[in-house]
């Protein structure tokens, strides 16, 4: 036996729609209803801190947000745009610079962590109009195409040569019981030591050739 449904009795679908709408409104602050932004204290910018360091041989002192990366300090505050922002996750190496002679991904480190540091960017490799030997070798060997990764490649290669001169071994070194010498720098060694720098154009063979050429003439 069935019973007639009163005309004013809501259907199941209408009931569920009403409940869903009420639940959604209950989770939204009152100030959001009608499109108004929520009330609250104003967001206060972080206080600036002074970072004093040397960049390409020139002393610099800048007041920056403490959250500023070294990359943004170089590009946005000092306008040294040779250092590139690629992945911004430390995976591509386009932002590589030298900090106290050692390579660093500038997108991953805060500027405030390097007081009195000596930072070298690609703009600081050349001596006036005289190209750094690696820069000249990259041009000669056609070691770049779009050029976006090239500044990081050059800084990383500069550190590579310094590491080899210091006798540092790598994962590709067959005999780690003796100091590494420049004469031991094979193509495999160069590839391993440059593996943190990606080239989306695929100019790797020419990059290796350029580094090998400079290493062959290094004292």
Automatic annotation (TrEMBL):
Transmembrane segments: none
Top-level lineage group: Bacteria
UniProt entry keywords in alphabetical sequence: Iron, Metal-binding, Oxidoreductase
Domain 2Fe-2S ferredoxin-type as annotated: residue spans: 49-125
Protein name as it appears in the record: 2Fe-2S iron-sulfur cluster binding domain-containing protein
CDD domains named among the record's database cross-references: fer2 (cd00207)
Species in which this protein is naturally found: Gemmata palustris
Pfam family for this entry, one: Fer2
Lineage: Bacteria, Pseudomonadati, Planctomycetota, Planctomycetia, Gemmatales
Keyword rRNA-binding: no
């Amino acid at each position: 036996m069935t019973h007639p449904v009163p005309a004013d009795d809501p259907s199941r679908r209408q009931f569920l729609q009403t409940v869903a709408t009420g639940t959604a409104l209950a989770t939204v602050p009152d100030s959001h209803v009608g499109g108004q932004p929520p009330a609250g204290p104003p967001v206060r910018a972080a206080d600036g801190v002074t970072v004093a360091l040397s960049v390409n041989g020139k002393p610099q002192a800048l007041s920056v947000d403490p959250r500023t990366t070294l990359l943004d300090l170089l590009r946005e505050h000092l306008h040294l745009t040779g250092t590139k922002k690629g992945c911004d996750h430390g995976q591509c190496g386009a932002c590589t610079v030298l900090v106290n002679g050692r390579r660093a991904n500038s997108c991953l480190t805060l500027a405030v962590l390097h007081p009195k540091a000596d930072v070298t960017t690609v703009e600081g490799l050349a001596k006036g109009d005289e190209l750094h030997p690696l820069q000249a070798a990259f041009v000669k060997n056609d070691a770049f195409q779009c050029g976006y990764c090239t500044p990081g490649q050059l800084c990383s290669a500069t550190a590579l040569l310094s590491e080899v001169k210091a006798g540092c071994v790598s994962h590709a070194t067959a005999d780690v019981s003796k100091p590494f010498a420049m004469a031991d720098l094979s193509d495999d060694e160069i590839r391993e030591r440059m593996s943190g720098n990606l080239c989306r154009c695929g100019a790797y063979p020419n990059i290796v050739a350029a580094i090998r050429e400079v290493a062959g003439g290094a004292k």
